[in-house]
Amino acid sequence: MARVSHKKDPDRFLMKRVSSYYYHRRVPANVAxxxxxxxxxxxxLKTDDLALARSKRDLIExxxxxxxxSMIMDEAHDPARARYxxxxxxxxxxxxxxxxxxxxxxxxxxEEIVSxxxxxxxxxxxxxxxxxxxxxxxxxxxxxxxxxxxxCDEIVPDELVNKSAVQxxxxxxxxxxxxxxxxxxVSDKVMTDITRDDAMKxxxxxxxxxxxxxxxxxxxxxSGNRDIGNMRVLxxxxxxxxxxEGRQNPFARLNFSAKKKRSRPPFPKEWLIxxxxxxxxxxxxxxxxxxxxxxxxxxxxxxSELANLTAxxxxxxxxxxxxxxxxxxxxxxxxxxxxxxxxxLVPLVGVALAVFQxxxxxxxxxxxxxxxxxxxxxxxFKENSLFPTADHKIYSxxxxxxxxxxxxxxxxELRRILMGHAIDRPRYGMGGSLEWRRxxxxxxxxxxxxxxx
Length: 453
Fold this sequence. Notes:
Layout: E1 14-17, E2 20-26, E3 40-44, H1 50-72, H2 79-93, H3 101-107, H4 110-122, H5 127-133, H6 144-155, H7 157-160, H8 165-185, H9 196-210, H10 221-241, H11 269-276, H12 287-299, H13 303-307, E4 314-315, E5 322-325, E6 344-347, H14 350-358, H15 370-383, H16 396-407, H17 412-419, H18 434-441
């Protein structure tokens, strides 16, 4: 490998001549024959400010590390893309945004093009860097599957930082399905070779399942829209990343008309009291899953929100006992919540209060394992006839909670806050005190037998 830079020296590879700093670095011996700049790389940083020089040095240093690594990589890796990435970073170190020749020709002003040409002529840039400044480095042949890896590892990793392992896996699963479907239908094509006809093949694949000429649909419009939409996002994000903003997207304007999704029916109040909360009906369900089911009744929370509560978000010692549904900021165990409006404080009343008095640390069996929780509850409810109809799901608890608040004439904004729904106006204040929220929820609280907890 190329020699690792001396990170302890803040002024490594910096040399000052007269009134300007230079990046000055020896080319490692094991790549000297392949690097035209050997034996030394010397680039004017065009500044006498040490802090700015260090910043520019960092960019060029990283680019050279990538470049030299690409020169000694096995063919099993991707030296062409590594060289391309290195050139992009070296161009950025010049204070330019990297653009391909196609992007420069179609999206840049004449002044920008002339300025880049003048820079390559007056600064006597190395040949590869000069070519990079004017977009002359060919875009490497990257397949759809490889582009997806780049998308996950280099383009959107910041979006995944606060997701739990389960959330990351689910995020990737949905997007990878679109990639795999495209590969199975078309092929693992090079990104630059994808055509509108290829996109139409994916579109027709879904059309046959959403609106077949003969027979019943097997998939919803949202499934097809999600797949095509994910390919559209991947295509745009990848080419923006490699300097071709505005490239015509073959997946553009391909979508299916989606009817409004049918809402899940709520559990009737009588069903909650006489079936779900009937002593014995949840007795053989494991204790933590049973606790989550019962807590759903009086909190209206999403099952995953309850499963991922920690001891610090279960606040029984406060004047008004409550749970805090919030993102988990632990760097070793992060977790996002669905939306910013989902962050909320829910007072504990009725059976939910009894549950958390028993489970003060939450439900560790299902923390970061919400899929296991879903499978366990669905299986148990079906086997024990706890769903009123085939249309009812575990999420029906949430709909039931909302209906009970509505029927009791609870304030509309309070209902939205407790459900974690967005409020369609500028938000002021805290949405009412916890004491007021608790008193309002007591209007809908259901009586229960302590033995069921």
